Amino acid sequence: MLNIHVRKRQGDFTIDAGFSVGDAGVTALFGTSGAGKTSIVNMVAGLSKPDSGRIVLNGRSLFDSEQGINEPPERRRVGYVFQDARLFPHLSVKANLTYGMRLVPHTERYVNFDEVVRLLGIEALLDRRPARLSGGEKQRVAIGRAFLCSPALLLMDEPLASLDQSRKSEVLPFISQLSTCFSTPILYVSHILDEIEELADNLVLIDKGAVVAAGPFDQLKTSRELAELMGKTGVRRGMPSRGLKIAS
What we know:
CATH class: Alpha Beta
Largest sheet: 6 strands, mixed
Structural class: alpha/beta
């Protein structure tokens, strides 16, 4: 369980957001570009320090301004998948996958290498270098590397943004499978409703640095708050698989 309530001023823009993420499933942060989604995720990861507030993961304080706690990123047990794969170009796929895993004590590992490789369908890629991978293959390797660190929470910041539609369709099912198979909570950032519709169990709507609504996806998919955000992003169409219909 992740509980977060943070405040941070960035120039003329202020983030003041609080919400919770459950013990499993995908929680999507949805909002327009510039709403503060990535800034919030970076604070959870420890890449950016809030001005005040608390971030608590599974009962352990990662940040607490009142108690003077600010755990460094490497001690937070949080995996991060960025918009670009950020693979090490001089290492093979296998070496990339195991790079962070080697730093995790055996007693704290809950993710099996062979199982992740099989689920991501990258068995045939293990000896290749990143330069010989497609965009979708690179992102699958990046996702596998993050999972193999056995994180208590996985952060995904628009991981499909650099891919074309066919590559997105290739990668999306793997994200859903891994979340289900390993019961790892995922905090997924996107401003693309198709991705949210495909993946999200829970939804956090972000606007101008604040949470305007949060709850199960099935409850918020017809909400006025989502309709208003969709208007700001220019999205006006429904999603077929889960019957998304926006209130007018």
